[in-house]
Amino acid sequence: MRSGDNRLPARMGRRRSIRREDPAPISFQWHVSRSAGELPFAINRSRPMIVVHHLNNSRAQRVLWLLEELGLEYEIVRYERDAKTMLAPNSLKHVHPLGKSPVIQDEGCTLVETGAIVEHLIEKYGSQLAPERGSELYDRYRYWLHYAEGSAMPPLTLKLVLSRLGPLGWPARGFVNRQLDLHLDYLEGELAASHWFVGNAFSGADIMMSFPLEAAASRAGLDRSRPRLWEFLEQIHTRPAYRRALERGGPYALA
Length: 255
Ligand SMILES: N[C@@H](CCC(=O)N[C@@H](CS)C(=O)NCC(=O)O)C(=O)O
What we know:
Layout: E1 16-19, E2 50-55, H1 60-70, E3 74-79, E4 103-106, E5 109-112, H2 114-125, H3 136-165, H4 170-193, H5 204-219, H6 227-238, H7 240-249
Parallel strand pairs: 1-3, 2-3
Antiparallel strand pairs: 2-4, 4-5
Helix pairs in contact: 1-2, 1-5, 1-7, 2-3, 3-4, 3-5, 5-6
């Protein structure tokens, strides 16, 4: 597709994929209701489709996985990280000012933050992936939705940043590694009581927790010595919806 060309490509099967490298600027609109006709793409259909703004090798993979678990139709607008800085291209800032992925557009609303996106999609389309509202299990479910990005990801991100600083990062390595061990030991213990993070039923919480655990396996020493976490990763990687999401999302180094 030509740079700056906003036309949709020809429909392929039931799914579409758009590469958006340098789109014409669109106005920032988030958490604002719009009619489907006002979506930033020339989408002409009776029922609006969910659009996922997907950065390669990123947290956005979880959103694709959830959509596959729910059997929803969606289209992907792809963004490639800068090979040197690993940052998203500026064009993602046309969708939301932070320029981070994932972002979804659903019936005229633009949503950001993986946890909020997961909560939204499950509430609207897939209550089978959450415990009953008001139950004790629901509190646990909501806890993991927040914990994944709020508590587990910060030390993992720090670890990544420190690894790029070379000797400058050495003084902080001990602190970060101890924090990571603290979290991983805690999580290993949590899975002693139940098969999944929220009791014995697979839920959106497991999808949220997948990314920190995959990141921990890739850069924080998570291995078979924490057998329950390891088994969790092995199990999610065999789910058909997870595999389909990988096919749709393209290369994902953490799987
Ligand atoms: N807590 C946010 C984090 C979003 C985030 O940092 N996304 C990364 C992808 S893993 C990103 O877009 N990085 C590219 C950049 O910062 O330019 C969420 O879960 O959505």
